[in-house]
């Protein structure tokens, strides 16, 4: 699926640009965005390092386990394939907590840590496991209580009440998260999304 | 009241985490400095490992946006958004959000300037921005970090969630502010 979407972005974009007699735009965009991608990745190094360090202290102190225990009933249902005591559970819980409180900077490193742990128990290393897809769907549906950046933008634009959108946003983000969980659980049963049997030999 | 609490959380959350976790660790006899640096070592490699995936995704998205293909997609989808009562001005932001957080915020700020942040358009855009994610970016980064190439149903599920977020944002905005 990602192959088709990626190809469509490229092909449609380039064809439209040429049709508009604007092929130079493609060259500029390709080079600019390649640079932006590297800047974004390198920009992550600092916060990644910081939060993975803090995360390790939390882990060694038993904090992650504690948080994981509290949320165990929900987590086992969402991720039946992941063993209850597995470190992936703790990392996913920490990532979701960071997302809920709008700590964008902290959420990504914790999420990547969770992916790494999930990969450890993934029998097909090049294929996303059910748990990975569920985790990503919840993540991309953005469970957020405080949308601090939106509030900041509204304040900058002289809104009379910049924070009035918090309540409605919580309703909308809750709906999208519920939809994400339902969608991912239904889709994983579809034949086209099954992991091909011959791949199982590779593990 | 609720807003004050939320504001306090976003201001104090990170300082408190940075204070309490090392402190708790120390009490639990963790060698905090050593544990920190040990965990932190992974940071660099993870960040570098996502570069190819992010370049692939952002270049494709960038070409799609800058070529004008995005505007054509807007035109095609307009009749559908009219059906659900979405202000057509907000549509470009809704389409941009899964592709680029910065792009979506740019469009939102543009809507604020043109229509005001407290207009129905401005409010709908705000709620929408807060309730959807940069799905393609997150997917590229997260799957890229562990070299997953076959993403199965993750994209579709993410886009379904975004769609539901967008539609709910439109409905909630209309009920509360129209």
From TrEMBL, chain A:
InterPro entries: Gate_dom
TM segment ranges: 33-54, 91-112, 133-153, 165-187
The entry's keywords: Membrane, Transmembrane, Transmembrane helix
Every Nucleoside transporter/FeoB GTPase Gate domain range: 42-150
Ribosomal protein found in the keyword field: no
Protein's recorded name: Nucleoside recognition protein
Automatic annotation (TrEMBL), chain B:
Record bears the keyword Transmembrane helix: yes
Membrane-spanning parts: 7-27, 47-64, 154-177
Top-level taxonomic group: Bacteria
GO terms under cellular component: plasma membrane
InterPro entries given in the database record: Gate_dom, SpmB
UniProtKB keywords: Membrane, Transmembrane, Transmembrane helix
Ranges for domain Nucleoside transporter/FeoB GTPase Gate: 48-148
Protein name as catalogued: Spore maturation protein
Organism: Anaeromicrobium sediminis
Phylogenetic lineage: Bacteria, Bacillati, Bacillota, Clostridia, Peptostreptococcales
């Amino acid at each position: 699926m990602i192959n088709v979407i990626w190809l469509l972005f490229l092909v449609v974009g380039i064809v439209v640009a040429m049709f508009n007699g604007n092929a130079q735009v493609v060259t500029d965009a390709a080079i600019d965005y390649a640079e932006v991608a590297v800047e974004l990745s390198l920009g992550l190094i600092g916060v990644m390092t910081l939060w993975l360090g803090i995360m390790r202290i939390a882990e060694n102190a038993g904090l992650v386990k504690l948080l994981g225990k509290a949320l165990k009933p929900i987590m086992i249902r969402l991720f039946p394939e992941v063993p209850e005591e597995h470190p992936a559970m703790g990392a996913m819980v920490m990532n979701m907590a960071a997302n809920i409180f709008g700590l964008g900077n902290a959420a990504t490193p914790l999420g990547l840590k969770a992916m790494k742990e999930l990969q450890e128990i993934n029998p097909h290393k090049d294929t996303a496991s059910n748990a990975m897809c569920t985790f990503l769907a919840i993540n991309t549906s953005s469970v957020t209580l405080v949308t601090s950046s939106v509030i900041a933008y509204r304040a900058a634009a002289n809104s009379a009440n910049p924070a009035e959108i918090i309540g409605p946003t919580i309703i909308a983000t809750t709906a999208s998260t519920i939809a994400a969980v339902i969608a991912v659980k239904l889709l994983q049963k579809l034949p086209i999304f099954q992991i091909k049997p011959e791949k199982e030999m590779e593990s | 009241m609720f807003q004050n609490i939320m504001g306090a959380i976003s201001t104090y959350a990170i300082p408190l985490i940075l204070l309490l976790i090392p402190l708790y660790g120390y009490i639990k006899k963790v060698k905090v400095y050593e544990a920190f640096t040990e965990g932190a070592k992974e940071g660099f490699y993870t960040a570098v490992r996502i570069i190819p995936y992010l370049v692939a995704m952002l270049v494709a998205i960038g070409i799609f946006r800058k070529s004008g293909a995005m505007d054509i997609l807007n035109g095609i989808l307009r009749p559908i958004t009219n059906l659900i009562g979405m202000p057509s001005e907000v549509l470009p932001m809704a389409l941009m959000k899964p592709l680029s957080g910065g792009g979506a915020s740019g469009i939102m700020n543009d809507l604020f300037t043109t229509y005001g942040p407290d207009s129905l358009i401005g409010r709908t855009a705000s709620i929408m921005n807060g309730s959807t994610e940069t799905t393609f970016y997150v997917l590229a980064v997260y799957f890229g970090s562990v070299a997953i190439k076959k993403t199965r149903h993750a994209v579709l599920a993410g886009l379904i969630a975004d769609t539901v977020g967008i539609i709910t944002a439109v409905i909630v905005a209309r009920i509360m502010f129209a």
